[in-house]
Amino acid sequence: AQKITQTQPGMFVQEKEAVTLDCTYDTSDPSYGLFWYKQPSSGEMIFLIYQGSYDQQNATEGRYSLNFQKARKSANLVISASQLGDSAMYFCAMRSPGFQKLVFGTGTRLLVSP
Amino acid sequence: NAGVTQTPKFQVLKTGQSMTLQCAQDMNHEYMSWYRQDPGMGLRLIHYSVGAGITDQGEVPNGYNVSRSTTEDFPLRLLSAAPSQTSVYFCASTRQAYNEQFFGPGTRLTVL
Asked: What is the spatial distance between Cα A50 and Cα A68, in angstroms, rounded to a whole number?
């Protein structure tokens, strides 16, 4: 069975600093995808970044990068130069191969202070 | 292009009532899914569909039914609502070649 673990229920960071949100995963499938979603207080789910299990390089999307360490089964999200608008819940998720189903972690609430 | 739409946005039911949460997408996506979000538990998959006429159970299917008669629509039915079904429900869609799942805005359901 696939499992996503996010051990940080809450994180605090000052504006303009970088922050790392942790995510570890467990799967026996050799092919999988890892995702990060942002959920602001308004409730919508916003896709941030994707990493495939066979991708050689870490994914990057603007200020977001994914620190993918396959041997350690970790897929941490790094947000550089935090902004006040980054305050939100962040969910790590894994896609099982062959189907577009996602398994989510319990999330990390990030608070960015001025 | 409306993306994924869900109706209603809010709903209050009494225990034992039935209702259908609507989900529609206009992107011709094969895959559609329903998730529920409860505090401290992330999103959990209820049911999913890989195409019209094909549905399957997810992690927490009990108390819910789905059908997929068209590519565009994927309604979620609660036959006899229970307080344990109080949650926020998200519908999502995607295509096999895509990495991103597109989520609807969610339906907040309260069962009294």
From this structure: 10
Rg (CA), chain B: 13
Q: What is the DSSP string of A59-75?
A: -EETTEEEEEETTTTEE
CA-to-CA dists, residue A6 to A57, B64, B108, angstroms: 22, 28, 24
Chain A contact present for B42, CB below 8 A: yes
Token pair belonging to A35: 């995702």
pLDDT digits 0-9 by tens, A94-103: 987 766 688 9
Give the contacts of B95 (CB within 8 A, at least 6 positions apart): B27, B28, B29, B30, B31
Tokens for B29?
């996506």
Is residue A70 exposed (0-12), middle (13-18) or buried (19+ Cβ within 10 Å)? exposed
- Interface test mutation site (partner A, options B37, B55, B95, max chain A beta carbons within 10 A): B37
Cβ-based contacts of B88 with chain A (< 8 Å) = 43
- Which residue among B41, B59, B101 sits closest to A100, beta carbon to beta carbon? B101
Q: Cα separation of B76 and A24, whole Å? A: 31
Closest CA to A86 of A4, A19, A8, A7: A19
Q: How far apart are CA B66 and CA B5, in angstroms?
A: 16
pLDDT in tens, B32-54: 999 999 987 789 999 999 999 99
